[in-house]
Every structure is written in structure tokens, then in C-alpha cells.
Amino acid sequence: ARPLLVRVLGKTKGVAGLYAQGHAALGGEAGPSLIEAQDRPSQFRRVTSTAENAIPVSTITLEQLFAEQRLDKVDYLKMDIEGGEYATLLAAPVKLLARIQRIGLEYHPLYSGEPYTRQQLFAHLERAGFENVMNRDDGEGYGIARFRQRQTECR
Predict the structure, then answer these.
(1) Of 37, 47, 63, 137, whose CB is crowded by the most CB atoms within 10 A?
(2) In tens digits, what is the pLDDT along the chain, a chain of 155 residues?
(3) Looking at the DSSP assignment, which residues form a beta bridge with residue 130?
């Protein structure tokens, strides 16, 4: 398995940083997980708690990533984590998400029985102060979306 790589662009760092955390994955809960390792395209491999053919990984939350990297603010968070965007972002507290200026993400179809919807994800980001400035949905559950913090007079 490859190390988790997350590009962190933040004014507090002064320059773009790269985060590497061994064999880890971003998710909604911290702890041991599995990444499906079936011989199929990566967009069909998910972080899960049960899988027959899988690679063990540690899962960290977005909140842990911010704490470990001592991030006060992030200018741009780009996320393409093959379905993990739902659990990761929905578990992130609104106050944490409000510290991000822009988000670019690819979203994926959900497996049967997953408790999330794209509408829940977008609503959670709106509660954190984001507006959706672009959404390209392919009609089959895949899409690309961009969000930015709403401008306020007192910023």
C-alpha cells in the first residue's frame, strides 16, 4: 500500500506542504481499517471494516490531520478518496471545516446500505459556511464539486 498523501495548502505554513502518514487513510473514525484490494479500478476500492481481500491500514480523521499538522487555516483542500469523502467530511465538525477556505472534491456512488447521501454532504458543508460554486454530476453518482467559504463583511 502507498502512504497517505494529502496536499495541504495553508497560509499558516507559508508554503505548500505534503503530509505522509505511513499506511493510513482519511475517514470518519480513527482506528484500524481495511482497504479493499480486489483486482479492479481504484474507484471501486473502499476503506471498510470488513473485506475478504484487503490491506490493513490505520484511519485518521480530518480533525486529527489538522491537529497533527498544527493547521490553523487551509486555503484549499482537494479530496479524491474513492467514496471516503462522505464519512470523512460528515464526521468533521462544522468549526473545523470553517477553517478551510475552498474544497475541491470528487464524489462517488455509494454502496447499497451506506448511510450517506450527496445531499447530506453538501448540506453539511453549507452549515460550515460553504457555498457550492460548481457541481458536475455525471448522472450515475460520480461528480466533481467545488466549494468556497461565503464572503462576509466582517472577515
Answers:
(1) 47
(2) 334 444 443 333 333 344 444 556 788 889 887 777 777 666 666 666 666 777 787 888 999 988 888 888 999 999 888 888 999 999 999 999 999 999 999 988 877 667 888 999 999 999 999 999 999 999 888 899 999 999 754 44
(3) 149
Q: What angle do CA 2, 34, 89 make, to 5 degrees?
A: 85
- Give the E-state strand segments of the chain in sequence order: 5-8, 17-20, 24-26, 31-36, 47-48, 54-60, 74-79, 100-107, 130-137, 143-149
User: What are the φ/ψ torsions at residue 76 (nearest 5 degrees)?
Assistant: -150, 125
What's the pTM?
0.77
Centre a 10 Å sphere on the Cβ of residue 60 and count the other Cβ atoms it contains.
23
